[in-house]
Amino acid sequence: MTESLADQLKKVKLKKSAEPMKDFSNPKTMGFTSAKEIREYEDKVLDVNTERWIQLLSDVTFPTVTCPFTLDDAKLFIECYKRIFDNKDAETAMAIDWKASLVSVEREHVANLTERLDSAMSVFTKDDGCAFVKLSSRSAKDAPMLQSRLKDMYRQALGKFNETEQKQENTKIICLLQAAFDAMRVTCAADVIDMFVRSERVYQDLLLAAINRPEVYDEHFVIRKFIPIDVDMEFRGFVYQGQLTALSQYNYMVYSERLVAKKDSIANRIQDFFKISVQPKLPSANFPQDFIIDFAVCDVEAEDNLWKLWVIELNPFLSSTDGAMFSWEHERHLLTENDGFHFRVVPRPKPGSLTMLPSSVRAILKDTMS
């Protein structure tokens, strides 16, 4: 199974055996006892698709436009992934020229889709701008692991630190995460489609939307202005019955000295931001009252009253969504009971993390050190 770099790093502290790691944000339909339970699960996933909240929160999230992604488009991506990438390891998948495997009707379809998407992206990519593109549910953030440019981006990120810092595990993981984030910056539709075709996350989401639930299919390309976010300034919030009950550092494999120092200020700002600018716009009559919400804090080196806060995205309030520094199994009560607000950040560096990284990640480090 292919995971995003962030997802792989997050699982390091949990990895006790050689069992395949899992992306906890993946849709899952196993473990249910009836078709009704599966349907209820799928409904919760679809209820927080971008189309359901983007207009409600348009003034507090990144500038966004959408582009049609039809059921036929979805079926094309599903077929291409199954035929070309399914069950391929990362090294093999990275070397595949998938376009060479297309038949003529598929090549024509991809060309038309590329033209359609380029036109929609131009609102952000013209004048040397950049965009971030996802589908209605999730992004293709696992795909950069399959693209060689990630190695170059990692080298560039590491080069911004001095020689001593470059040898530190924490610095290397920060740079890997930053490279994975920067790899999502796109300027043309061809790059987007390449990422999407290679992405297992996209494949899984399209199976749910196009195969499991075609009667309610409503997927789009979600095109957003690319806003730089530091890897230590992204946070996962937990909303239960309309209340923000908990908050966690999103990239919890890294230690950030400034985050620890600003923890209380960040907690206060995000709580106020949610209460004043987010909560009133998601009325119970129109939107689920239990959900996961990701925040970004930008310009954090300025005075805290000048910080810019964003809503990144919403996800279903389900154990299949990564709980960050909270355990769904052991700490669900902290997320669902009126027991005060809980905020967790990594308090100190985690020595030894690099030795536990997945082989695909260690390969990047080895290649860049050679």
TrEMBL record:
Keyword Cell cycle attached: yes
A single cellular component GO annotation: cytoplasm
One Pfam family it belongs to: D123
GO terms classed as biological process: cell division
Record keyword Cell division present: yes
Entry keywords, A to Z: Cell cycle, Cell division
PANTHER family in the cross-refs: CELL DIVISION CYCLE PROTEIN 123 HOMOLOG (PTHR15323:SF6), D123 PROTEIN (PTHR15323)
Family: Belongs to the CDC123 family.
Name of the protein in its database record: Cell division cycle protein 123
